[in-house]
Design goal:
Layout (H helix, E strand, L loop, with lengths): L6 H68 L6 E2 H4 L20 E2 L10 E5 L18 E12 L8 E2 L3 E11 L5 E15 L30 E9 L1
Antiparallel strand pairs: 1-5, 2-4, 3-4, 4-6, 6-7, 7-8
Length: about 240
C-alpha cells in the first residue's frame, strides 16, 4: 500500500525550501555589499594615488624650473645653449612611453640616484624625531612616491637640441606604485622663458593720487629700476 504525504508533511517541506531561499538571498546580498565596498575602496585609493602623483609632478616641475633658471644664468651672454653639452653629455630619453623617439628629443634634467633615475619622496619613521610621532599612532610610511624631470628645446630653428631663443620646455612625471607594482602616473609641463629687458616703473601705487606723468600728481613709487633678468612661466595641462 502506497502512503501519500499528509498536508502537515507538505507544509514542512515548503518551510524548508523557504528557509533555504531566504538564506541564499541574504548570502547574495552580503556578497554584493562586500563587492560594492571593495570597489569603492579601490576607487578612493586610485583617486588618492592620482593626487599624490600629480603633487609629485608639480614638485618636480618646481625643481626643474629652478634648475633651468640656473642653467640659463650660467649660459648668460652666449648666443645659444646646446642641451646635451649643458647637461653633461646627456642622451635622449628612451625608457618613458610617449617620450622615447620624440622630436625634439627630451633629456633628463634631474637624474635621480634611484633605479631608473627616479627621485624618491620618502618619509620613514627612522627619519623622524620621536616628538613628531604621537603615542599610540600607527604612522604610515611613504616609500612609493617618485618623480622624474625632463627638458627639451622648443621649435625655434632647424636644430632640435640647441636653444637660441631662451625658451625651454620642462616636463615632470610623478608616479605612485601599489604594493604589487602597478604605477599611477601624472605629467605636467611648462614653457620657461628667460627674458632680459628694462623695467620702466615699479608696480603698484602706494599713494591716493597716481598719475601717468612725472609731476606732483605722480606716484612716488614710479621710479626707473635697473636692468633685471626674469623667468616667465607658461604652464600647460
Amino acid at each position: 500500500m502506497v502512503r501519500r504525504p499528509t498536508p502537515r508533511r507538505q507544509s514542512r517541506g515548503f518551510t524548508l525550501l523557504l528557509a533555504l531561499g531566504a538564506v541564499m538571498v541574504v548570502t547574495m546580498a552580503v556578497m554584493l555589499s562586500y563587492s560594492v565596498v571593495g570597489r569603492e575602496a579601490d576607487t578612493q585609493a586610485d583617486t588618492r594615488r592620482q593626487k599624490q602623483a600629480f603633487f609629485a609632478a608639480e614638485a618636480g616641475l618646481a625643481e626643474g624650473r629652478e634648475a633651468v633658471r640656473l642653467l640659463m644664468a650660467k649660459n648668460s651672454g652666449q648666443a645659444q645653449l646646446a642641451l646635451p653639452a649643458a647637461l653633461g653629455g646627456a642622451t635622449p630619453v628612451n625608457d618613458i612611453p610617449g617620450l622615447a623617439g620624440a622630436n625634439p628629443p627630451w633629456f633628463e634634467l634631474l637624474p635621480g640616484a634611484g633605479a631608473g633615475k627616479w627621485n624618491y619622496y620618502t618619509v620613514l619613521k627612522s627619519g623622524l624625531a620621536p616628538t613628531e610621532i604621537p603615542d599610540g599612532v600607527d604612522f604610515p610610511e611613504q616609500n612609493n612616491v617618485r618623480y622624474r624631470v625632463f627638458v627639451r628645446d622648443d621649435v625655434d630653428d632647424d636644430s632640435n637640441t640647441v636653444d637660441v631663443n631662451d625658451q625651454l620646455w620642462i616636463l615632470a612625471v610623478g608616479e605612485v606604485t601599489t604594493p604589487n607594482g602597478r604605477p599611477t602616473r601624472s605629467m605636467v609641463q611648462a614653457l620657461v622663458t628667460n627674458a632680459d629687458g628694462d623695467s620702466q616703473f615699479m608696480p603698484g601705487c602706494g599713494q591716493s593720487r597716481c598719475g601717468s606723468t612725472k609731476d606732483s600728481s605722480s606716484n612716488s613709487d614710479e621710479k626707473p629700476v635697473e636692468n633685471r633678468s626674469t623667468t616667465e612661466i607658461s604652464q600647460y595641462p
